[in-house]
From TrEMBL:
Family in the record: Belongs to the cation transport ATPase (P-type) (TC 3.A.3) family. Type IB subfamily.
Domain HMA, first and last residues per copy: 3-68
Subcellular location as annotated: Cell membrane; Endomembrane system
Coiled-coil residue windows: none
Record protein name field: P-type Cu(2+) transporter
Taxonomy, superkingdom: Bacteria
Organism: Sphaerotilus mobilis
Length: 71
């Protein structure tokens, strides 16, 4: 089954930002679906088990947005 991620994303201010982040995440190998909630600044992602948080974070960063470090 797919793994489900919820990751915080910073730097989005309009609906086009949301679309950009969703597109970037969906282009990651193994990602089945990604949806972003602007109000909560959260991305919900379904992905194959092999997909790593690092690869998801990298896609968001390349698109120009930030993923806060989780401690
Ligand atoms: Mo909207 Mo987001 O004009 O980077 S696309 S602010």
């Amino acid at each position: 089954d797919d793994a489900h991620w919820s990751i915080a994303i910073e730097g989005m201010t309009c609906a086009s930002c949301v679309a950009r982040v969703e597109k970037a995440l969906r282009q990651v190998e193994g990602v089945a679906d990604a949806s972003v909630n602007l109000a909560t600044e959260t991305a919900s992602i379904a992905a194959a088990p092999a997909v790593t948080l690092a690869s998801l974070t990298a896609a968001v960063t390349r698109a120009g947005y930030d993923v806060p470090v989780r401690t």
